[in-house]
Amino acid sequence: LATGPRQNNSIFYEIRTYDIKPSKMKDFVEMVNKYFHLRTAHSELVGFWSAELGAMNKVVHIWKYDNFAHRTAVRQALANDKDWQGKFISPALPLIEKQHNEVAYLVPWCQLGKPPKEGGVYEWVTFQMKPGGPALWGEAFQAAINAHINTGYTKLIGVFHTEYGLLNTVHVIWWNESPDHRAAGRHSAHEDARVVAAVRDSVRFLESQKNVLLIPLQCSPLK
Predict the structure, then answer these.
(1) Is 214 in contact with 121 (CB distance < 8 Å)?
(2) Distance, CA of 49 to CA of 121 (rounded, Å)
(3) Residue 2: predicted pLDDT
(4) Are strands 96-106 and 58-65 parallel, antiparallel or unpaired?
(5) 150: domain range?
(6) 156 and 170 share a domain?
(7) Do 110 and 183 belong to one domain?
C-alpha cells in the first residue's frame, strides 16, 4: 500500500520507547541525565521524555538521521564507543524491561516545531489509521490538526507517520503550558463547530487513539 507523498528529502526520525522496571525508573532517569551527553555526541537528539499520564515507567526519545547510511554509521560508532558502552549501556540494560523502535517521517505539510518557552508539558497522541497511508487519510487528518491549531490553545511540535513498525500509525506531539491549560483548551475545542466538523471527517479513517502526557528530561533539547 502506498504511503503517499512525504518530504522531499531522506531525513527520518527513529522513535525509541523503553519500558523501565518500576523500581528502577529513578535510577534510569539519573543515568540518562548524567551520561547521555556521550550518546548525543554521535547524532542529534530531538527530545527525551518520561510518561506522566496514560502510561507508567515509560520513556520516549526521538533521534534524527540524514538517511539510513547515517544511522548505520552512528550505530557502528556507538558499538565501538567504550565510554558509552561501559558507563551507560552495560548498567542501564538491567533496568529496562522492553524496548521498541519505529522509523517515521514528518508528514509533508509539517515542519518540526519548538515550544514558545520552557517549562510546559507534551502530549503524545498516537493514531492508528486505516490502511492506505497519507494518500488515503492525509487530507482529512491535516484538516483536523489545523482545526486544533487554529483554536490557539496548543502548540504543534510534529506529526510523524511510520515507515517501519506498525504501519499507518501517526504520532502527533503537542505542547501546552500545563495539564490544566490543556484541559481547558480541549473543553473549548469540543464546543468549536469547526473542530467538531473536522474531527468527524477524520475519524472515518481512525481505528484507535492513545494519549500520553510526557515530561521532558533534563537532557532533552525540547524542554
Answers:
(1) yes
(2) 10
(3) 41
(4) unpaired
(5) 106-216
(6) yes
(7) yes
Confidence of residue 8 (pLDDT cuts 50, 70, 90): low
Indicate whether this model's pTM tops 0.90.
yes
Check residues 81 and 7 and name the one with the higher pLDDT: 81
Residue 187 has pLDDT above 60, yes or no: yes
Question: What is the total count of domains within the chain?
Answer: 2
Q: What is the 3-state secondary structure (H, E, C) of the chain?
A: CCCCCCCCCCCEEEEEEEEECHHHHHHHHHHHHHHHHHHHCCCEEEEEEEEEECCCCEEEEEEEECCHHHHHHHHHHHHCCHHHHHHHHHHHHHHEEEEEEEEEEECCCCCCCCCCCCCCEEEEEEEEECCCCHHHHHHHHHHHHHHHHHHCCCEEEEEEEEEECCCCEEEEEEEECCHHHHHHHHHHHHCCHHHHHHHHHHHHHEEEEEEEEEEECCCCCCC
83 grid coordinates: 565510554
